[in-house]
Write a structure and sequence with these properties.
This is DUF6534 domain-containing protein. InterPro entries: DUF6534 (IPR045339). By secondary structure, the chain is mainly α. The chain has helices at about 1-35, 40-70, 75-80, 85-110, 120-145, 150-185, 195-210, 210-225, 235-250, 255-295.
Length: about 300
């Protein structure tokens, strides 16, 4: 019974978490397209691609969970074979990870006023190497997949390099974004660090700085190295949604188009009022002087 809980039970829980995380990502994706409908085509392409990858990842994760918990339940011969859906996930979530890491690398380059090229280049290098390793693992399992234990032993000596590259890349992203958006603007803070508003702002800023994908990669290693059965699949089935969520949080943190236009209009009106008042006063004074001279 405990073996079933650690295998099929873990897979069912992971499948439900995959659907829940995808629903959350869809909500934030809808918010992005609603607020930034005139955004750059490159940004909208990146968001659309990541959402489609998350959709594919959720579908194959759901099929895997359904077949193991319903179709193949009790069939040990089917459960001992590595499912094709598990192999497919090795293409969906590493590709999503690669795209989001490239986007954050370009983000760091832009907010550094295009001066810091070394850190984004390092992130691109690590992300590319990790994606290449993931594609290699995907191709190996497509050609020679047998049982989950044998397949893990076949790919995971190299798979540790994939995990390590992603973790280092996410650490660089978090450090770079935290430096340029938080540390360099520390002098502009008006609230104490320990106030509830500041703590909430710091938490939101950490999420915007890609801390969730970094934590998810660390959780993946912990679950894989501990004796918790198939619960490490929880990170595999949700990591694509975590990266896309981090991307959408960063994009939605900007001011919406309508709000920016309204703010600019109000600001320009406030700036023009004193000028209009001054011109009116000058014109009234001029008329009084002219009347005095004529009389």
């Amino acid at each position: 019974m405990s073996d079933i809980k650690l295998s099929v039970g873990a897979l069912v829980v992971s499948g439900w978490m995959s659907f829940m995380s995808f629903g959350l990502v869809l909500a934030f994706g809808y918010q992005y397209f609603l607020q930034f409908y005139n955004d750059k085509w490159l940004y909208k392409t990146v968001v659309t691609t990541c959402l489609l990858l998350c959709l594919g990842d959720t579908i194959v994760s759901g099929l895997w969970s359904y077949r193991w918990s319903s179709t193949y339940y009790g069939d040990t011969s089917a459960l001992l074979a590595t499912p094709q859906e598990a192999v497919a996930t090795l293409w969906f979530f590493p590709t999503t990870t690669f795209i989001v890491q490239l986007w954050f690398a370009s983000r760091i380059w832009m907010i550094s006023m295009e001066k810091n090229l070394s850190l984004p280049a390092l992130i691109v290098l690590l992300a590319s190497a990790s994606w290449a390793i993931a594609l290699w693992m995907f191709s190996v399992l497509v050609k020679h997949h047998s049982t989950p234990v044998n397949d893990v032993n076949r790919i995971f000596p190299v798979g540790y390099a994939w995990l390590g590259g992603n973790i280092i890349a996410d650490m660089c992203i978090f450090g770079g974004l935290a430096y340029y958006t938080e540390i360099r603007t520390r002098k502009q803070r008006i609230h104490h660090l320990l106030s509830p508003r500041s703590l909430w702002a710091v938490t939101c800023r950490m999420i915007e700085c890609n801390v969730l994908p970094l934590l998810s990669q660390i959780v993946l290693i912990i679950l894989f190295k501990t004796n918790v059965g198939f619960y490490y699949v929880l990170s595999d089935m949700t990591i694509a949604k975590v990266y896309t969520f981090s991307l959408l949080i960063n994009l939605n943190a900007r001011k919406p188009i309508v709000e920016a236009i309204s703010h600019a209009a109000i600001t320009s009106q406030q700036r023009s009022d004193p000028i209009t008042f001054t011109r009116s006063a000058i014109n009234a004074t001029t008329m009084q002087v002219r009347c005095t001279c004529n009389t």
